[in-house]
Amino acid sequence: MKKAVKIFIGILIILTITAVALQKTTAGIIPLTDWLLQHPVETYYVETSEDNYEKLWTGKYKYVFLGYNEEGDEQQITKVMSKELRPNAFLRMDTSGSYGKGWIEVMEEDIPEDPLLKLN
């Protein structure tokens, strides 16, 4: 019985370490579950700033954006990128749930009215 408890505690410790490592080196656990559940791809508009990212120990950058779709609905979006983005740029981001999949920089005049009002 004591051996089973030790094995169980060991497995819990390994799972905890794995979860922490996953959270610190990737976009995190929530985007991973979004990816596993295969949400449909939606387009959101976001604005970069000087303080919406964290530099990971891997050399990549973990960004957390507050984005708006064409109807003005709000969504928090997490995306890990290999480079630092310039501040105050507007991005059109394709998302699956709260995970950013792809992005392109757009001009302010290319953003629909509802998201642009909420971004400014």
TrEMBL record:
Signal peptide: none annotated. It holds the Pfam family DUF1093. It comes from the Bacteria. InterPro entries: DUF1093, YxeA-like_sf. This is YxeA family protein. It comes from Oceanobacillus neutriphilus.
